[in-house]
Amino acid sequence: MSIEIRNLSCTFGSLKALDDVSLQVNTGELTALLGPSGCGKTTLLRIIAGLESADAGCILIAGQDMTGVPVQQRQVGFVFQNYALFRHMSVFDNIAFGLRARPRARRPSAAAVRERVMHLLDLVQLQGLADRFPSQLSGGQRQRVALARALAIEPRILLLDEPFGALDAHVRKELRRWLRKLHGELDITTIFVTHDQAEALEVADRVVIMNRGHVEQAGTPYDVWEHPATPFVCGFLGDANRLDGHTENGRWQGHRMTLPAPGLGTPGKQPALAFVRPHEFDVLPAADDSAPGLSARLTHVYLAGSEAHLEVERLEDSAPMEVKLPMEVFEQLGLQRGQTIRLLPRRARVFAAA
Amino acid sequence: MSNTAPPHLTEPGWLRALITLVSIGFVGLFLVLPLILVFSEALRKGWELYLAAIIDPDALAAIRLTLVVAAVSLPFNALFGLAAAWSITRFQFRGKQVLITLVDLPFSVSPVVAGLVFILVFGSHGWFGDWLQEHDLRIVYAVPGIVLATLFVTLPFIARELIPLMQAQGSEEEHAALTLGASGWYIFRKVTLPNIKWGILYGAILANARAMGEFGAVSVVSGHIRGETNTMTLHVEILYNEYQFAASFAVASLLALLALVTLAAKHFVEARGALHARRAGNPQFSTQTVTGQVESRASEHRSRGAALGLQNLAILAKEHA
Question: Is A149 on the interface with B (CB under 8 A)?
Answer without folding.
Answer: yes
